[in-house]
C-alpha cells in the first residue's frame, strides 16, 4: 500500500517550531543575569496572557468551557502543562549553567523516543528503510551516551518529559491554540505567585522598588518577548502532531538539537571533541537516509487519474 502524502501545513509548522527551538539557547543566554526560576515564571505568565487573551478576544469566555468539555481534556492538559513547565525549567537552567551541548543531546534522543512511541503506542508503521534510519540513529545516541564522560541525566530527563508532552497532545485531540491556552491557565496563578513573591523578597528584579535596582528595560523586554517565543513554536508543534504521523515528527525534530549544538559549540564555545562528533555524524546519516527514502517514495507515487 502506498503511504498517504504528508500534510504540507503540518510539515512546515513542525519545521518552523524546531528551528525556533534550535536557536533559543542564544536568546536565553542574553538573560543569564536573571535567575533561572524567574525566567521560567516569566515564560509562563507572559505566554499565558498572550494566548489566553487572544482566545478570549476571538472566541469569548465560551472557549474554555467548550475545551474542557472534551473527554479527558481537563486532566490530560493539566498533565501536559506540568510536563512542559518542568521541561522549560530544566532546559533554561542547563543552558545558563553551560550545558547547551548536553541539552542538544537530550533533544537528539527525544525524536528517537517519539518514533518508538509512535510505533508502540499509536500503532504507526515504518518502512524497512525507515527502520534502518532508526537503527543508525540509535547507534549514534548510544555512542553519545556511553562516550559522554558522565551520565547524561539532563539529556535523558529532557527527552522523556518532552516526549511525554508531545504524546499527550497527540492523544487529547484538542485544537492546538486552545490546548496551549488551557495549559497556560493551569500554570498562570502559580507562576504569578512565584514572581510576586520574588519581587517583594529580593529575589526578583523585573520592577525596581525600595531602592533595589531592577534588571533594566532591555532585560524586562526580553522576558516579556520570551512569552511570545514560548507560545508560537508550541502552537506550531501541537498543530503539527495532529496533522502528520508522530514518527515523522520525531525524525524532523533533529533540526532543533542540530542548531542547538551549533549554537553551543560555535557561538557559546562549549567543548565538542571527536568522540561526540562520531555520534552526531551517525544521527545526521540517519536523517539523510530517512529524508532520501521519503523523497524517492514521493516521486514514485502514481499521479491521481
Automatic annotation (TrEMBL):
UniProt topology in membrane: Multi-pass membrane protein
Compartments where found: Cell membrane
InterPro entries, alphabetized: EamA_dom, EmrE-like, RarD
Alphabetical UniProt keywords: Cell membrane, Membrane, Transmembrane, Transmembrane helix, Transport
Domain of life: Bacteria
Keyword Transcription regulation: no
Membrane spanning residue stretches: 12-30, 36-57, 69-93, 105-122, 129-146, 152-172, 184-208, 214-236, 248-270, 276-296
Predominant localisation class: membrane
Domain named EamA: residues: 9-145, 154-289
Family (UniProt): Belongs to the EamA transporter family.
PANTHER family from the UniProt entry: ACYL-MALONYL CONDENSING ENZYME-RELATED, SOLUTE CARRIER FAMILY 35 MEMBER G2-RELATED
Protein name: EamA family transporter RarD
UniProt organism field: Luteimonas soli
Gene: rarD
Amino acid at each position: 500500500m502506498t503511504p498517504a502524502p504528508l500534510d504540507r501545513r503540518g510539515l512546515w509548522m513542525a519545521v518552523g517550531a524546531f528551528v525556533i527551538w534550535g536557536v533559543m539557547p542564544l536568546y536565553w543566554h542574553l538573560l543569564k543575569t536573571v535567575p533561572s526560576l524567574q525566567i521560567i515564571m516569566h515564560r509562563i505568565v507572559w505566554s499565558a496572557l498572550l494566548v489566553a487573551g487572544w482566545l478570549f478576544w476571538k472566541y469569548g469566555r465560551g472557549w474554555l468551557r467548550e475545551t474542557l468539555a472534551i473527554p479527558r481534556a481537563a486532566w490530560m492538559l493539566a498533565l501536559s502543562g506540568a510536563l512542559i513547565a518542568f521541561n522549560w525549567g530544566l532546559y533554561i537552567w542547563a543552558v545558563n549553567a553551560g550545558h547547551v551541548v548536553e541539552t542538544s543531546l537530550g533533544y537528539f534522543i527525544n525524536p528517537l523516543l517519539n518514533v518508538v512511541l509512535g510505533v508502540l503506542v499509536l500503532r504507526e508503521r515504518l518502512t524497512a528503510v525507515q527502520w534502518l534510519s532508526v537503527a543508525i540513529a540509535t547507534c549514534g545516541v548510544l555512542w553519545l551516551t556511553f562516550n559522554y564522560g558522565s551520565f547524561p541525566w539532563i539529556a535523558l530527563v529532557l527527552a522523556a518529559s518532552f516526549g511525554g508532552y508531545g504524546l499527550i497532545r497527540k492523544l487529547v485531540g484538542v485544537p492546538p491554540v486552545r490546548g496551549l491556552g488551557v495549559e497556560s491557565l493551569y500554570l498562570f496563578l502559580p507562576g504569578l505567585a512565584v514572581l510576586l513573591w520574588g519581587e517583594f523578597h529580593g529575589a526578583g528584579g523585573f520592577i525596581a522598588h525600595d531602592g533595589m535596582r531592577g534588571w533594566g528595560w532591555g532585560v524586562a523586554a526580553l522576558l516579556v518577548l520570551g512569552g511570545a517565543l514560548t507560545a508560537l513554536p508550541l502552537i506550531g508543534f501541537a498543530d503539527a502532531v495532529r496533522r502528520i504521523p508522530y514518527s515523522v515528527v520525531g525524525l524532523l525534530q533533529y533540526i532543533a538539537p542540530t542548531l542547538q549544538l551549533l549554537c553551543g559549540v560555535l557561538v557559546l564555545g562549549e567543548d565538542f571533541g571527536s568522540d561526540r562528533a562520531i555520534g552526531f555524524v551517525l544521527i545526521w546519516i540517519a536523517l539523510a537516509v530517512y529524508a532520501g527514502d521519503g523523497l524517492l517514495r514521493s516521486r514514485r507515487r502514481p499521479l491521481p487519474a
